[in-house]
Amino acid sequence: MPDNAIYYHVAYVAAGVIYLGYSASLYWRWKRVREKNLTRS
Amino acid sequence: MKPTPLTIAAGVGVVVTYIRAIFFTPTEAVQGPAQKIFYVHAPAAWVAFLAFGLVGLASVLYLWLREERLDRIAESSAEVGLMFTTVVLITGPLWGKPIWGTYWTWDARLTLTLFLWFIFVAYIVLRGAIDEREMRARYCAVLGILGALLVPFIHLSVYLFRTLHPKPILMKPDAPSLPTEMLTTVLLAFAAFTLLYVALLRVRYRYAVDRDALLAESHHA
Lengths: 41, 221
What we know:
- The complex is a heterodimer.
- Helix content of chain A is 88%, strand content 0%.
- Chain A has one helix and no strands.
- Chain A starts with a helix and ends with a helix.
- The mean pLDDT of chain A is 92.
- By secondary structure, chain B is mainly alpha-helical.
- Helices cover 77% and strands 0% of the residues of chain B.
- Chain B contains six helices and no strands.
- The radius of gyration of chain B is 19 Å and the shape is globular.
- The relative contact order of chain B is 0.18.
- The chains are: A mainly alpha, B mainly alpha.
């Protein structure tokens, strides 16, 4: 069996970082807009 | 924003998929551990196609009905779909290197997927470049439809062209060609990442609603 586990480890970490990073960016953007909306109202 | 049952289910589903794929799914004998990339690559591709399909549908409906919420759905789905396509374009080459001997080849499936990614990057850039709401929605709807039209073509590209990319294992007319343990992991991954897409789409849509309310208020002030 070929020893190529490093590629799958990197792929899993990269995918996880992208999913978490995007979710965090979405949360922060939403929070910023929400706070501005609350300040105005 | 409090976590909803949907976001919790999506998060748990993705974590369980990772754990099952890493620890409880057998390693394929010929390809070795690199085959496990399939469990994150294929569901991401499916979700990207689903997301861009929704962009196309919402865009067609927007051009017909001119309802703002349809434009918001298209905008939200395009951004989430672009994120999933980025995962596809990173995990694919990481599988290609040990199996094909190269990270990238200008094969029909890979090239068209990269082209799709650029179309939706252009879609996001276009949204930021036009201030007038109605014009932005109309132009982006046209680009969104053009991008979505590429999706079935990409899916069929492995049949239409001579390509290195493997043919579909699940989304094909006959039975899936995988052992049961691997098939269970694949099905779990498809369900978990579809849930993740729906959860992210919902949050992104709510963000678009709040942002538009803020913009409308600042225009009135």
